[in-house]
Amino acid sequence: MKMNGEQLIAAPRARVWDALNDPEVLKQCIPGCQSLEKEADDRLKAVVAIKIGPIGAKFAGAVTLSELDPPNSYVISGEGQGGTAGFARGSAKVSLADEGDATRLTYNLDAEVGGRLAQVGGPIVDATAKQLAGTFFKRFGAIVTASEVAAAPAPAATATPPVAQPPAATTQAFAATQVAASAQSALLPWIGAVFFAALAGFLCGRAGLAEPWQGALLGIAIAAVAAFGYNCGRRAGPVVVTLDPEVARLIAREKGGSA
Known about the structure:
The chain has helices spanning 13-20, 23-29, 122-151, 168-207, 212-236, 245-258; strands at 2-9, 33-40, 43-52, 55-69, 73-81, 87-99, 102-114. By secondary structure, it is α+β, with helices and mostly antiparallel strands. It has a 7-stranded antiparallel sheet with strand order 1-7-6-5-4-3-2, covered by helices on one side. Helix 2 (23-29) crosses helix 3 and helix 4 packs antiparallel against helix 5 (212-236). The longest helix has 40 residues, at 168-207.
């Protein structure tokens, strides 16, 4: 019986050629292959169990590679004895050709069977042989394509551009400015407290209080009230200080008198 076919494999020709000479790959592709051992560079020993029509048999034989023309073509031949079931032998010319980034694999197969297998009938034997050949090359193409995908380099990850950082000098200057502003804002309430304490002492002196310590005590009380207000302001936010109308009139009167 004779048959031919072709298959497009998504892999370069060199990779397809290497797979055609790899015993492990061939073992996975041959239907019913139980073992495949390399005896020489061009010879392998195989055990294959197949069924043709109602007859099933285990064939032990050899697989030979000849007419080697790497990485373009070769002839793969096999012959096996199946005991009382008979024998099977055949050969296939396999050719490779580039087709873009892929490889076009073409095969021409010639096979025959003998013994009881030959009694099954030509149509059944032909149909089985075509099925076995189709299965072999379909598996072969899938394995080589998968290995090519696995060997392809992963796309490089896009690096995230670094966030621009302000210069160290700018950061330090900003921090120093913030510290200075904070210190200035912290001094203002105390300056105000000292001012009002001095003003209260002055007013008490003008009012004729008998003892100086009374004016000092009043100033300390004002400073304490200012400190308390400052602490509350830090916790609760800005505080608006409003002078008592009487104090405001006293201040206005003093200013008028001074004028």
